[in-house]
Amino acid sequence: MSSEKPILVVVGATGNQGGSVISHFLSLSSSPYALRGISRDPSSSKSVALVARGVEMVAGNNYEPSSLDAAFKGASVIFCVTDFWAAFFDPSQREKAVASGISIGEHCRSLEVRQNRNIIDAAAKVSTLERFVFSSMPNTNKISSGKYRNVYHFESKALAEEYGRAAHPNLWEKTTVLYAGLYLENWLDTLGASALLPPKWSNDRDELVLPLLGPLSDAPFPLYSAVDDTGALVHTILHADPGQKVIGVNEWLSIKDIAIILGQALGKRVEFVQGDLGFDLGDPDLTKEMTEMMEFCVEFGYDGAMVDNTIVKPADLGVPVHLQPVKEWCAKQDWKSVLQVGGN
């Protein structure tokens, strides 16, 4: 790429977090960076769309270190996020897990650790690199002393983070770790069906109904718009001191709070009813993973901050940042199509 601007490389450029980073810097009247996205298939429709917006898209495979060396060449900043769930729901990966005699969660943990170690190793070799932003999660297994050992989509990133800190201390001096909060965008796909976001629409009573699930309903969660706000937060991170762990959060809210805000956005009443703290997501592995995640959040905090006091909030970075209130985010969404409000 021929440019006088420093290069910001985004691993995961076509996803939620990475796409937000790309979109944010493209939205600036004058971006401080030339943007390079990495894709396993630069000819994909999402990649081509980014090229049309002025992004350099290059081939890169997280399982092939040499491809990452080429993709990272000349980078000043690297933002990295990997996808645990693509493999989790891939039938071919489930077959491999069965053949290995392990659960799909264990298998995907191994895959994501491998990806991130390759990315970290490649980033450590970039002589031009000034900052590395690594999207991670807390180690639920370690923090809970093995009580919550099945939250593999957290642990996989945490294990790679621990590897990077130990194996590449010079890189980690330039690194900020980002713990993305509970995606607000999940509501748009799962509200009314997911045990994680339980408000449901009652056509009979024309209201939202929220089952009260004991301590889970009152526990605070970091609600976060990965799509709208990751880019702005990363921009702020790059102006703050490295070496920090930051929680991506618009607001800390309980599930009760979420239901009330959504009711306000819809102009509808919310009724609270007694429910059972028993999840069934139609997949035993997924049910176990998500049940333990929620229980961990109640006991230790979503980001593990009840044990790890090194995690900082965006407002504590020392650089101004505006992340929208959850009510503002809710007001912009098309809830009628999601909830079928007023339908039969």
UniProtKB/TrEMBL annotation:
| SUPFAM superfamilies listed in its UniProt record | NAD(P)-binding Rossmann-fold domains (SSF51735)
Family assignment from sequence similarity: Belongs to the NmrA-type oxidoreductase family.
**UniProt-recorded name of the protein:** NmrA-like domain-containing protein
Is the keyword NADP assigned to this protein?
yes
Q: What's one GO-annotated cellular component? A: nucleus
Q: Where does the record place the NmrA-like domain?
A: 7-310
The answer to whether UniProt assigns keyword Isomerase to this entry is no
Keyword set for this entry?
A: NADP
**Domain of life of the source:** Eukaryota
